[in-house]
Design goal:
Pseudouridine synthase; three-stranded antiparallel β-sheet; eleven-stranded mixed β-sheet; 307 residues; single chain; alpha+beta
């Protein structure tokens, strides 16, 4: 695999059956939105499977693989830092701030936890053991070695990881806590595709919800509480959906109960209203060493604007 550039890996495309084309002709047809293939080829920025620069007139063959680097659009830096809590031969554990995505996706390519860590630590093989939303702060665990990645990721699939979250949400005297929520969650259709919804049917999401007491900044007009959330399943947006289903939408949530409009692409980022959701604890028995692993976030939820 070619080396990283600014922490981002090269992209790979297989030629397939394009026997009678040159590399330039294939790229112009397959990736037609890119206008500067001749310039990239002349710079040596298009490589074969052995990492050798390809010439524009190189004939394609069916088993051919082509590597290239994308021209990444400029991204505003997310002005909050990752904290590395643990690093060994198998795992890197970080305390992620609000607003920083876990991995490259959509508009966020360089400004992600994965790319920052690759740049900072120089470990090109890092991959997420699990994911948390861009809006959520707290623990994020990465695997180091491709050979052991499956062993760690399978712990999530077999529910052998104990996770604890904290949240700030409205306080309601009519909601009896603690309680264990059981819901069936499905993707919302149409325009609300970003949202999950609660539907009738066999539950596929389970979370224990406990109230830890009044939240700092709570007022008589807008009482807020500090909650501990212990999920027993791992559905997309599970905690956000289930808290909203209780009538306790998490403070700062831009998706539940109402999907806020996406800001314009050229709008400056707004970091003043972080989602009040924190991945606090992450525990499991290490599948390689057999030893218990327990990690705790050092971050705190706060209602004041993020600094």
């Amino acid at each position: 695999m070619p080396p990283l550039r600014d922490g981002v890996g090269a992209s790979r495309v297989g030629v397939g059956d394009a026997r009678n084309r040159t590399v330039l002709g294939f790229l112009r047809e397959r990736l037609h939105t890119v206008a500067d293939w001749p310039q990239r080829l002349a710079r040596g920025d298009v490589l074969d499977s052995r990492g050798r620069p390809l010439a524009a007139d190189t004939p394609c063959h069916p088993s051919m693989v082509i590597w290239y680097w994308r021209d990444l659009p400029p991204e505003p830096r997310v002005p909050f830092e990752l904290t590395v809590l643990h690093q060994d031969d198998h795992l890197v554990v970080v305390d992620k701030p609000h607003f920083l995505p876990a991995i490259p996706s959509g508009r966020h390519l360089r400004e992600t936890a994965l790319v920052r860590l690759k740049q900072e630590l120089g470990i090109t093989t890092l991959a997420p053991m699990h994911r948390i939303d861009r809006e959520t702060a707290g623990l994020l665990v990465f695997t180091v070695q491709p050979a052991t990645r499956h062993a760690y990721q399978s712990l999530l699939r077999t529910r052998q990881v104990h996770k604890v979250y904290e949240a700030i949400a409205p306080w309601r005297p009519d909601v009896a806590l603690p309680c264990t929520c059981h819901h069936r969650l499905e993707d919302a259709p149409g325009r609300g595709f970003m949202q999950m919804r609660v539907v009738d049917g066999e539950p596929n999401a389970q979370t224990l919800v406990e109230c830890l007491g009044p939240a700092e900044g709570s007022t008589a007009d807008a009482p807020l509480a500090h909650y501990r959330l212990t999920p027993h399943t791992g559905r997309r947006h599970q905690l956000r959906v289930q808290m909203n289903a209780l009538g306790l939408p998490i403070v700062g949530d831009r998706i539940y109960p109402r999907l806020w409009p996406e800001p314009a692409a050229d709008a400056p980022p707004d970091y003043t209203q972080p989602l009040q959701l924190l991945a606090r604890q992450f525990s499991f028995t290490d599948p390689i060493s057999g030893q218990p692993r327990h990690f705790t976030s050092q971050r705190q939820l706060q209602l004041a604007p993020a600094r």
